[in-house]
From TrEMBL:
PANTHER family: CHLOROPLAST PROTEIN-TRANSPORTING ATPASE, SECA INNER MEMBRANE COMPONENT OF SEC PROTEIN SECRETION SYSTEM. This is Protein translocase subunit SecA. GO terms for biological process: intracellular protein transmembrane transport; protein import; protein targeting; protein transport by the Sec complex. SMART domains: SecA_DEAD, SecA_PP_bind. ATP binds at Q84, G102, E103, G104, K105, T106, D491. SUPFAM superfamilies: Helical scaffold and wing domains of SecA, P-loop containing nucleoside triphosphate hydrolases, Pre-protein crosslinking domain of SecA. The keyword ATP-binding applies. Monomer and homodimer. Part of the essential Sec protein translocation apparatus which comprises SecA, SecYEG and auxiliary proteins SecDF. Other proteins may also be involved. It catalyses: ATP + H2O + cellular proteinSide 1 = ADP + phosphate + cellular proteinSide 2.
């Protein structure tokens, strides 16, 4: 049976193949070790030439790995174990290598990083915090630098020029936040000089479960104030009240849009004291005026919103409930505040956002390593297409994992934990205690102080001091209390004489809802064949037991007549708890999967917008793009225009869009043949476009087109992001009407995106035909009414 199970065990088959690779790499070691330093350094250009001649990275793997192993021995005094070579191959194959704590994952990454860097497309090594990124870059850097590769480092405070250099390096170390936020910042950049990233090629994610699963619950968001122009709404609302509906502006209630007439534009400019409302510097004021007109005409107190304690609170149109904390986007909320005479608040708007899942799925190849991935393999495969390969330890595991001990109350549990710590301290054996919160770690600390036991208390803020203390947690008499994740990525090395005492003893004070987190804590003990032990102390008041299976255990304790302070200790109970954890894990996976399904809709849109935006940013001449947009707008414009039977209404529509009236307007619109009217007006529009180009000069016109297109696409995309968030928040209500919320979300999101694209085209043309730039030389601007 053992033979059959091994035969059908895919992990065992994978390991068998990896062992064949290792044999071939080991066979090269005598030959490679005889090479001089200069011979080894020449290997990098040789490998690159072989790639140019048509060989693949797989063809180079055996020799490249043998070279890296030899260079590591010479530069940092470390030689890759066979299991580390196996881990390196798994990473190169774009999979996850599960390797126990203390197996040297940092060194493992040097093998695939070097091999893949030979292509010159960049390799990103992703860590959970700045400290580890910096530590690993300078610890492993000498290997790469010996072989002629450049190594970059990203830190939270790295300036933009240094960031560019870091990304142009062959291998770049940084955190998931730095890589993700740089991607977002690149996609709101206003100049090519602000771009830092290259195309995303290959990423090796350290502590992959922490980053790709735990961190994936929270998307990366760049937000900013809504341009800090709250004060202009006070002026804009007065102007809006001064203008007369159907005389100075027209409204469309169905689409909730407002357009100024020629007369209204003149009156607004006079009231606001500006010569040209469409001057680029007045864009904010023009926008505020239109939003205030919307607030006056379409949004009503005690229907769409209420005013309570000097604050405008939105009323949910589906439920009638007050939506505390929610605000209308794109300045509309500020316009309503101005209308109601309450304090106009600055607001943050989402400028750019992406989920962790969708960021990392953009890499051409993705790999990861951790001590705990197998329990989440289904999620890694379904979401990221990443298989998990469990690599055996270099030395057999000697850690003893004792069964869980369960008490009735949390108080009894902590008393038992303190008692066990006291017993370990008396013999000098180091103890690491994992807690689930800062509050509980402080509670335990107070209890230890009463007993006179010296100890360190750490929480999961991930800083250098913490990593250093965790590293010393294996010394004699060391007692360290930490949140379960504290100091992750740092090895606990046993001090002198500790192995003889039984090694590090790990105590968990509560089971986490994820088995991975518990296994990560356990994995602190027993590194590299060291002795060690672990035990979890639980109570029926713990969240996990209270929610899953606590009643069964409680009934069992009562039947057994358990007295205060008397625990239950049974492998059967440990299995019950692990089954409870598996249930929670499945539930959380479904939640993350659903969040991703919604984000995938936005991701498709984001991809289209960012690609178009990058074209606008980087293309030297945007004439082709502008002409394409103009053709589409003209088609839509004439369709709308000819559907209006009253030809007098054509004038306002034409003037609002193109900012001028042809000198022969009256003659043109007398034509009976619509085709003739269209041809003549289209001709005048194109003449006007060419005249604008002449007015500004070709170079300035190029830049004006770029500024306008970027301004419009950013403004509308920010508004769209906030609208999509509002849609996502309310879409669950569709289930009440027996509609699938996701299907409804996709339909509405598609329509909203189409509307945004149409608005982008329409507004881009409107701005290009109406915009006037004030310069020092030209202090006044004129706006051609007839041309």
């Amino acid at each position: 049976m053992g033979f059959l199970s091994k035969l059908f065990d895919s992990n065992a088959r994978t390991l068998k193949k990896l062992e064949e690779y290792v044999k071939r790499i080991n066979a090269l070691e005598p030959e490679i070790s005889k090479l001089s330093d200069e011979d080894l350094k020449r290997k990098t250009p040789e490998f690159k030439q072989r790639l140019e001649r048509g060989e693949t990275l797989d063809d180079l793997l055996i020799e490249a790995f043998a070279v890296v192993r030899e260079v590591a021995k010479r530069t940092i005094g470390m030689r890759h174990f066979d299991v580390q070579i196996m881990g390196g191959i798994v990473l190169h194959q774009g999979k996850i290598a599960e390797m126990q704590t203390g197996e040297g994952k940092t060194l493992v990454a040097t093998l695939p990083a070097y091999l893949n860097a030979l292509e010159g497309k960049g390799v990103h090594i992703v860590t959970v915090n700045d400290y580890l990124a910096k530590r690993d870059r300078y610890w492993m850097g000498p290997i790469y630098e010996f072989l002629g590769l450049k190594v970059g480092l990203l830190q939270n405070d790295t300036p933009i020029l240094e960031r560019k250099k870091a990304y142009m390096a062959d291998i770049t170390y940084g955190t998931n936040n730095e890589f993700g936020f740089d991607y977002l910042r690149d996609n709101i950049a206003l100049s090519p000089d602000q771009l830092v990233q290259r195309e995303l090629n290959y990423a090796i994610v350290d502590e992959v479960d922490s980053i790709l699963i735990d961190e994936a619950r929270t998307p990366l968001i760049i937000s900013g104030p809504a341009k800090g122009e709250s004060h202009i709404y006070k002026l804009a609302i007065r102007a809006a009240r001064y203008l007369k509906k159907d005389v100075d502006y027209t409204t469309d209630e169905k689409t909730k849009t407002v357009s100024l007439t020629e007369e209204g534009l003149r009156k607004a400019e006079s009231f606001l004291g500006v010569k040209d409302l469409y001057d680029f510097k007045n864009m904010g004021l023009a926008h505020a005026l239109l939003q205030c007109l919307k607030a006056l005409n379409f949004y009503h107190r005690d229907r769409d919103y209420i005013v309570k304690d000097g604050e405008v609170i939105i009323v949910d149109e589906f439920t009638g409930r007050l939506m505390f904390g929610r605000r209308y986007s794109d300045g509309l909320h500020q316009a309503i505040e101005a209308k109601e005479g309450v304090r106009i608040r600055e607001e943050n708007v989402t400028l750019a956002t992406i989920s962790i899942q969708n960021y990392f799925r953009m890499y051409k190849k993705l790999a990861g390593m951790t001590g705990t991935a197998a329990t989440e393999e289904e999620e890694f495969v379904k979401i990221y297409g990443l298989e998990v390969v469990v690599i055996p330890p270099n030395k057999p595991l000697r850690r003893i994992n004792y069964p869980d001990v369960i008490f009735r109350t949390e108080e009894e549990k902590f008393e038992a934990v303190v008692k066990e710590i006291e017993e370990m301290y008396k013999i000098g054996r180091p103890v690491l205690v994992g807690t689930t919160s800062i509050e509980k770690s402080e509670r335990l600390s107070k209890m230890l102080k009463k007993k006179g036991i010296p100890h360190n208390v750490l929480n999961a803020k991930y800083h250098e001091k913490e990593a250093e203390i965790i590293a010393k947690a294996g010394q004699k008499y060391a007692v360290t209390i930490a949140t379960n994740m504290a100091g992750r990525g740092t090895d606990i090395v046993l001090g002198e004489g500790v192995a003889e005492l039984g090694g590090l003893h790990v105590i968990g004070t509560e089971r986490h809802e994820s088995r991975r987190i518990d296994n990560q804590l356990r994995g602190r003990a027993g590194r590299q064949g060291d002795p060690g032990s672990s035990r979890f102390y639980l109570s029926l008041e713990d969240d996990l037991l209270r929610l899953f299976g606590g009643d069964q255990i409680k009934a069992l304790m009562e039947r057994l007549g358990m007295e205060r302070g008397q625990p239950i200790e049974s492998p059967l109970l440990t299995r019950i708890i692990e089954n409870s954890q598996a249930k929670v894990e499945r539930m959380n996976f479904e939640i993350r999967k659903q969040l991703l399904e919604y984000d995938d809709v936005l991701n498709t849109q984001r991809d289209i917008v960012y690609k178009e935006r990058r074209k606008i940013l980087l293309m030297d001449n945007l004439e082709e793009i502008v002409q394409r947009i103009m053709n589409r707008v003209l088609d839509k414009f004439f369709t709308i225009m000819f559907n209006q039977e009253n030809r007098e209404s054509w004038k306002n529509m034409f003037l609002e869009t193109f900012g001028f009236l042809p000198f022969d307007w009256e003659e043109i619109i007398k034509e009976e043949d619509y085709t003739e009217v269209r041809e003549k007006l289209e001709g005048r529009i194109r003449e006007r476009y060419e005249k604008r180009k002449e007015e500004f000069g070709e170079e300035m016109w190029k830049e004006i087109q770029r500024i306008v297109l970027l301004y419009v696409i950013d403004k509308l995309w920010i508004e769209h992001l906030n609208d999509m968030e509002a849609l996502r928040d309310g879409i669950g209500l569709r289930a009440i009407a027996h509609h699938d919320p996701l299907v409804e979300y996709k339909k509405e999101a598609y329509q909203m995106f189409q509307d945004m694209v149409e608005s982008f085209e329409w507004e881009s043309i409107r701005y290009l035909f109406n915009i006037h730039i004030s310069t020092q030389e030209t202090k006044t601007t004129t706006k051609g009414r007839r041309s």
